[in-house]
Amino acid sequence: MKNTITVVVVSAIVLGILLLMGPFFIVEEGEQALVIRFGQIVQVETSAGLKFKMPLIDNVVVYSKKILPWDGEPQRVPTKENQFIWVDVTARWRIVDPKKFYSSITTMERAYSRLDDVIDSIVRTTIAGNFLREAVRSTNLINELKRTEYLASTEASQEDVENMRQMAEFTKTRVQQENIQKGRRALSEEMLQAAKQIVPDFGIDVIDIIIRQIRYSDDLTESVYNRMIKERNQIAQAYRSFGEGKKKEWLGKLENERRSILSRAYEESEKIKGEADALAARIYAEAYGRDPDFFEFWRSIESYRTVVPNFRKTLTTDMNYFKYLYSPGGR
Amino acid sequence: MPERNVTPPKMPFSLTPRTILIVVIVIVVVLIGMSSFFVVDQTEEAVVLRFGKFNRIVEAGLHFKLPFNIEKNYNVPTQVIQNMTFGFRTEKPGVTTVYSNKDFPQESIMLTGDLNIVDVEWIIQYRISDAKAWLFNIENHSKTIRDISQSVINQLVGDRGILDVLGPERNAIEVQGQEMMNEIFNSYKFGIRVTTVKLQNVVPPKGPVQDAFEDVNKSIQDMNRLINEGKEAYNKEIPKARGEAEQMIQIAKGYATERVNKARGDVARFDSVLTEYRRAPNTTRTRLYYEMIEDIFKNEKNVELIDKNLKNFLPLKNLTEGQGGTR
Fold it and tell me: Torsions phi, psi of A16, nearest 5?
């Protein structure tokens, strides 16, 4: 009794294992499989699930059904204007026809190397046939953006705003960029179409080819750096010189206002004095005019009083004052 | 201690086929049990395949599956926001996150639309939105995400001038970057959703170029300094000049008042004297004359008096006297 149970259990397990290993195989989601019998493809399984094969005779080759990445080495390519740039391209592809893939390529390594050949040459051709700007830009957005030198000032007073406006005029270095004809997206599409001409022979579909990065070659980088530096220096110079100019302007304004203030004050003070003088003259004239004869006398003695004490004096008895000096009866 | 000296205990029972069978059965049962249950964490969803074919998706908890790889489970962290950095790497996240000192120029150096070079670092965050698509549609997830993210940011930077990228267009790049990445990932049926694209350090290339850019900022400071210097000189002089002007005017006004008052005083005195004079002109005239002479001479000594009629009198006078003396 117990022996029977043992036998049943053991044989069930063995059978199970055999069943799993033998005529069945599993294709997982995201995979596809070929069943190969004596070098011939006898079965193509593209959907997931439990599949049958002849045990021991049939070989199963499994390929991915997923989207696969392809990443080439960056390439140094001249553009149409003969500038050397590094172009780094990636692509996505998938195996769409495993039968064709098996017969023409077989292994993934060979698939990658084939893609390297195809895409690298397409990239070369495409980049070399276009200007650099076509590969860098996708739209003409750059010519639509409002560009001003960014001034890092938040507390902008009326005057600052005016200064910034003047500066913006000054530093308007941004020339209009050449409009692009195609742009990066169109180039990607072009490359993709070119690749699609070739790869179906391998049972492959290329889903996209995109430019991941573009860099200047090293010697070009150096000269671009120099250009950028010069461009910035020029702007910095503009700011400084603008500041100098403004300072001079203020100094000029200072001189102008100082002179006009002082001269206006001079004018006014002279006017005030003149008016006072005139008034005084009128007052004098009015009063003195009442008796010019007496005024003359009065003014004379007043004047003598102030002036004569300063003289060294020698008198003669001739003066009227001494009329009675020699005789009480007078002269 | 006594335990150390105890000899190994004897096997409690002998190795019979029955025992072996029991042991085998127990092992098999345990194996089946172990391969029949799986745990799904709160952060995850699990995709269950039966014979490799998609069967169901289960949520967090303890779940049963058919043993012996008949059913297979793949746990996918669908609730976790995942992070990816470009141009820099986080070495040790923490209160003060440590960043790797290494640069990754092959990721961060880009060309701008005006054909300048800029160094852009950014991060993206994404969440797996469809576990099944994530597992079975794309090979090599992180590489694909990196490639697409890089390409998108490169493209957006390539569409703008360097000053736009450094300043006002940052936000637009982030927003459009997120849209474009999602669009591309959706076209692959990737099963992820990018939730954030954030630009980090966006700077001109290190070294002299960056210095030149900083120099522009410095030049703006210089400009403001110069303008302020001009204003300072202005503010130093002009209020003073205004004061000076006011002073001149005040002095003039003082002069005017004085002049007029004096005139009035003089006239008033003259008027009074004139009134008296008119009453007795001759007497007053004479009186005034003598008063004047007195006023002048009363304090004078050494005034010489010469009779006009004296003949041959020549006064000897030192003509230089009172002119600073002789040498």
Answer: -55, -50
Beta bridge partners of A61: A34
Q: Which two tokens stand for residue B240?
A: 């003073």
Q: Which domain holds residue B219?
A: 207-294
Is pTM, for the whole model, over 0.90? Answer: no
Q: Do A313 and B304 touch (CB under 8 A)?
A: yes
- Report in angstroms the alpha-carbon separations of B278 from A99, B283, B291, B292: 151, 10, 18, 19
| Sheet with B53-58, edge to edge strand ranges | B53-58, B45-50, B71-76
CA distance A176 to chain B (A): 9
What is the per-residue pLDDT across B119-172, written as a single tens digit (0 to 9) for each?
999 999 999 988 888 888 888 888 899 999 999 999 899 888 888 888 888 888
B246 and B212 inside one domain: yes
Q: What is the DSSP letter of A47?
A: S
Of B58, B266, B181, B204, the closest CA to residue A281 belongs to B266
Contact of A40 with A30, CB cutoff 8 Å: no
Question: A225: which chain B residues are within 8 Å (Cβ-Cβ)?
Answer: 117, 205, 207-209
- Pick from B293, B115, B163, B141: nearest CA to A85: B115
- Cα angle value B304/B306/B310 (rounded, 5°): 155
d(CA B291, CA B284): 10
Structural domain contains residue B126: yes
How many domains, chain B?
A: 3
Which tokens hold the place of B27? 């092992």
Q: Are A58 and A36 in contact (CB under 8 A)?
A: yes
Give A272's pLDDT tier (boundaries 50, 70, 90).
Answer: very high
B306 CB-near residues (< 8 Å, 6+ apart): A314, A315, A316, A317, B313, B315
- Tokens matching residue A210: 């995109």
Q: What is the ipTM of this complex?
A: 0.73
Domain map (residue ranges) of chain A: 2-64, 67-140+179-216, 145-176, 222-331
Q: Which residues of B touch A288 (CB under 8 A)?
A: 267, 270
Q: For B60, list phi and psi in degrees, rounded to 5.
A: -60, 145
pLDDT number for residue A52 = 81
On whether the CB atoms of residues B188 and A92 are closer than 8 A, the answer is: yes
Q: What angle do CA A10, B52, A201 make, to 5 degrees?
A: 130
Checking B65-69 for CB contacts under 8 A at 24+ apart, the result is B65/B35, B65/B36, B65/B37, B65/B38, B66/B36, B67/B31, B67/B32, B67/B35, B67/B36, B68/A16, B68/A20, B68/B32, B68/B35, B69/A20, B69/A26, B69/B35
User: How far apart, in whole angstroms, are the C-alpha atoms of residue A220 and residue A224?
Assistant: 6
- Residue B168 shares a structural domain with residue B211: no
Is A26 an interface residue toward B (CB < 8 Å)?
yes
Q: Does domain A67-140+179-216 have CATH number 3.30.479.30?
A: yes
In a domain, B141, yes or no: yes
Q: What is the dihedral of CA A112, A114, A119, A120, to 10 degrees?
A: 90
Instruction: Give me Rg for the CA atoms of chain A.
Output: 55
B248 and A216 within 8 Å at the Cβ level: the answer is: no
